[in-house]
Amino acid sequence: xxxxRKFTVTALLSVLLILSLTFLLQGCAKTxxxxxxxxxxxxxxxxxxxxxxxKEAPQRIVSLAPAVTETLFALGLGDKVVGVTNYCDYPxxxxxxxxxxxxxxxxxxxxxxxxxxxxxxxxxxxxxxxQLENAGLTVVVIESxxxxxxxxxxxxxxxxxxxxxxxxxxxxxxxxRIDSITTKVSGLPDEQKPAVxxxxxxxxxxxxxxxxxxxxxxxxxxxxxxxxxxxxxxxNLSPEMVLARDPKVAILCHHGSSLQTVEQFKSRKxxxxxxxxxxxxxxxxxxxxxxxRTGPRVVEGFEYxxxxxxxxxxx
Length: 315
What we know:
The protein is α/β, with parallel strands linked by helices. It has two domains: 9-24 and 188-309, 3-Layer(aba) Sandwich (Rossmann fold); 35-142 and 144-178, Nitrogenase molybdenum iron protein domain (Rossmann fold, 3-Layer(aba) Sandwich). It has helices spanning 9-23, 66-74, 108-113, 129-134, 147-161, 164-185, 213-220, 239-245, 262-266, 275-278, 289-292, 298-309; strands spanning 35-36, 42-45, 51-54, 61-63, 81-83, 118-121, 139-141, 195-199, 201-202, 205-208, 224-225, 234-236, 249-252, 282-284. The protein has a four-stranded parallel beta sheet with strand order 5-4-6-7. Strand 4 (61-63), helix 2 (66-74) and strand 5 form a beta-alpha-beta unit. Helix 5 (147-161) runs antiparallel to helix 6 (164-185). It is elongated and about 60 Å long.
């Protein structure tokens, strides 16, 4: 009905796994981080509610998430990174770092062998934390479920690595860019907040519900997610539901590759009357990692989404 290309269940599951590990992890309640002290030793409460003490500024760091890796390099800590996942591909220097496995399947043996002073993980790695701690490693677990938490976690990474000044400068710049958008859209009445369809996968139609990171991006950018009333992260929609909710804006973000072009989207049979198609309000995210990775580049994705939703307000 849509594209003649058929996508296997395995391929879809792979995409959902990759995206889940970057911005749709909802299994743990978000905790407010508590930082005791301004220097080292430093004690924090991480996003698993664990009390962690960092004795001194780490010199060898292992990252278990691409967003964390990007943050470390943005803070000027690339020379201290001694291990990254197979998916850590930005910046280019990250590709040269020793690999310790995948998102959900890091090799504890390789992590230990890297002899890190600090391991930065996400909640998907929860089951590995005891094993790493039993090996004598210091592990901090973080998770970002919305833009404010992205900035909070960047500042935390700065604190636990001794790079607070760099983290404060980075987040201040990001906050300024975020504020330039939110101040323009925050007072809009509901009727001026267009319905937005954010397509993660074309077959079956997959988008993010109210518990997804992308939902927070859409709402902060002054839009209304057409699946925002669904209390889950991943949502499979029927074509009839999309047509019934008539999105005014459509955003294509097919992780891994552009599975369909804007023209292919517009040519879907029976979709001619969708407002986004009729009015040519369709955007294709050229680099999905600016949206799905909760690192420094996510503000670029947020700005792109905001421009698509409110081109008259966001230049």
